Amino acid sequence: MCAAPDQGITLPAGTDLSKETVLTGRVLAGGEPVGGAFVRLLDGSGEFTAEVVASASGDFRFFAAPGTWTLRALSRSGNGQTVLQAEGPGLHKTEVAVA
Amino acid sequence: MSRQDVLVTADWAEQNLDSDGVVFLEVDEDTAAYDGGHLPGAVKVNWTTELQDAVRRDIVTKEQFEQLLSAKGVSDGDTVVLYGGNNNWFAAYAYWQFKLYGHADVRLLDGGRKKWELDGRPLTTDVVERKGTTYTAKDADNSIRAFRDEVVAAIDTKNLVDVRSPDEFSGKIKAPAHLPQEQSQRAGHIPSAINIPWSKAANEDGTFRSDEELTKLYGDEGFDGSKSTIAYCRIGERSSHTWVVLHELLGHNDVKNYDGSWTEYGSLIGVPIELGSGR
What we know:
The complex is a heterodimer.
Chain A: E1 21-29, E2 32-33, E3 38-42, E4 48-53, E5 59-64, E6 67-75, E7 78-86, E8 90-97
Chain B: H1 3-6, E1 7-8, H2 10-15, E2 22-28, H3 32-36, E3 43-46, H4 47-51, H5 62-72, E4 79-83, H6 89-100, E5 106-109, H7 112-118, H8 148-153, E6 159-162, H9 166-170, E7 194-195, H10 211-220, E8 229-232, H11 238-249, E9 255-257, H12 261-265
Helix pairs in contact in B: 6-11
């Protein structure tokens, strides 16, 4: 497969957080979750890397690599972005506010 | 070909949802999004189970394609409008497949599901039923489809356009970053390929960039318009997106989509592989 899988809080079975750099977060508008937002992962130079659709609870995740990432969300409630620094493998959490 | 022959805008689509002779097909790798709400009247097409052979690794045959479209209620003379999620990747693959089997009038909804949703246009969960037809396809036009041997022969000869992300191209990762990295085939790219990610051809709302922007993009990245071209990615759907750009929007001659792509090439015994960022 190559399409963006369903997003959720539970990581896929077999995800090894000692090796994988997982970026996870939630899209919020005024503190409330925004479901169905389009979340784009941009690399340190601002270049597009991947895109998923946030779950009904606003959750999303990416399997990336250590580095500086921008998470940009597009939604009917507005757009927004945040920068996330992933120093190494493991679970890195963030929130993206849209307005 | 010009842009109006290839794409329809969301405005046009919304105005033509009920038009006779216009059939909307939502195509995706999995069809969960369709089930949650689709364009009124649109018919669901599952890329994995309906456009690919279920046993051999290949696209469906001409006969299978005819059976599918007959069952979906599509006629040879219909204007077929394709759209989907994932930035229209699988809709673009279907577009390429409709062209391969000679459908006269097929278009892509510019921006696909994403722009439609962001615009707040209507979606419905109503069940869509269309009367069956007897669809007749043409023989496969392999002038737009590349197979592995001609890809190997194209090294240092044709434009090989690798449309995956830079990290997939360099061999750092084997799949896009929204997927677990579990694939087992070799990483890297076909020697002499240039890396022009599909995403550079699209705006963030999923619409294609303008012809002027696209011409500049490929020129700046070393695409030689005087040469024949093969585009590839990992499973052939992102490269279909770029095939639409190069062959349909910009009108380059002899552009082929290599649907085997990296999952085939990166598993072949003995073929050359290059690592790193290329140029």
